[in-house]
Amino acid sequence: MKKRDIVIFFSIFFTLYGAINYYIFIRGYEALEAVSGLRLTFSTVFVVVALSYIIGKFVERRRISLLTDILIWIGSFWFAFILYYFLTIVSLDLLRLLNAIFGIATFTAYPTVKLWIFFVANIFIIALVAYGYWNAKRIKIKTLNLQIDKLNSVAKELNVVMASDIHLGTLIGRKPTKKIVDAINALNPDIILLPGDILDSEVEPAIKQDIGKVLKELKAKYGVFGVTGNHEYIGGVEPAVKYIRAHSIDLLRDEVREIAGVTIIGREDRSAGKNRKPLAEIMTRVDRSKPLIVMDHQPIKLGEAVSEGVDLQVSGHTHRGQLWPLNYITRKVYELDWGYKLKDRTHFYVSCGVGTWGPPVKIGNDAEIVQFLLKFV
Which residues contact 193 (CB under 8 A, 6 or more apart)? Predict the structure, then answer.
């Protein structure tokens, strides 16, 4: 990303983050009218929690410690809480507005009513986020049987396993990575594809935990291949690429590999800007009669793969919103934000990811690994 784009992004982010937190804080503070003695405790806890992620990430860039891990964990969960607090409070404010207009109900002890709503809403949201955390740790395998209308001189069938958006780092450490690796290996893949966001951001947390050692346990008959995602660029793409390649993953940056009778094309993430090559240029010397598989982290401009005669394109990035109801936004933004689609003769699959970004929470989608059983005819 250009410096100007980064400045604009963070300016918008901090403005929205501050405004939404202020809105939630004010409503929470007002709700404690009946027990005003709790307001100081509420204010202190709120400020600490709201700033924890920003402080944790800032300090982590200088020195990783138990304190930074704790702050990042707290702040990451807070992102999920923000969403559901915001939606709840907006809904309650709309009900208050309707009540003010139409006089539907009258409360004689309004401070007590507000306090009850405060506690009930908190219990519900805490339970919802706890479910999302549990759900994010449950890996589900999705299997697709696909027919590729091309002959393969090496194998009539291939077992290709894809895991996108792992986001290795502070939150996805050694233990969850081991769980992901074991789940992939249990499928006995011929080829493993990792279409971007293998790392969460900076490479240092992965180095500190030696997560790469776990990655090296991935086993596939013909190899493990990956591409960059936007998160490899967030923490510095060159250190990220170096780290990933050092741990037995063939990271393709607008490059081509011919393996097992198929051609795998790995595209550089769109974060590269003008340094990302057009698909047609990458495929200049590719034999179009062979089965063609493309990895492209962000599922944008699907027609490009169709025009180039690609047989299968796999992507990630969207997380399908990760937290309901954000999936309705990703559905509007992307032609395909999750799942399978056949366009002309090109098969597309966009995964909601096996890992998480931001909060370690998934609501309305699953932590998925996708198995493609390819049959060549």
Answer: 160, 161, 162, 163, 225, 226, 264, 293, 295, 314
State how far the Cα of 142 lies from the Cα of 372, in Å rounded to an integer.
9
Question: Taking the CB of residue 310, how many other CB atoms lie within 10 A of it?
Answer: 27
> Is 229 in contact with 353 (CB distance < 8 Å)?
no
Q: What is residue 291's three-state secondary structure? A: coil
> Bridge-partner residues for 191, per DSSP?
160
DSSP H helical ranges for 32-60 = 39-60
Closest-CA residue to 317 (of 184, 193, 174, 165): 165
Model-level pTM greater than 0.90?
yes
Rounded Cα distance between 317 and 296, Å, is 9
pLDDT given for residue 2 in this prediction: 58
Tokens of 121: 């809403």
Give strand pairing partners of 264: 257, 293
Please write the tens of the pLDDT for every residue from 75-84: 999 999 999 9
Assigned token pair, 207: 């180095």
DSSP line for 122-146? HHHHHHHHHHHHHHHT-EEEEEEEE
pLDDT tens digits for 110-153? 899 999 999 999 999 999 999 999 999 999 999 999 999 999 99
- CA pair distance 53, 279, nearest whole angstrom: 38
Residues in CB range of 189: below 8 A, 6 or more apart: 159, 160, 161, 219, 220, 221, 371
Tokens (6 digits) for 180 = 């992901």
Phi and psi dihedrals of 337, rounded to 5? -95, -15
| Radius of gyration for the alpha carbons in the chain, expressed in angstroms and rounded | 23
- Which residues, at least 6 apart from 341, have a Cβ–Cβ distance to it below 8 Å? 302, 335, 347, 348, 349
Residue-level length of the chain:
377
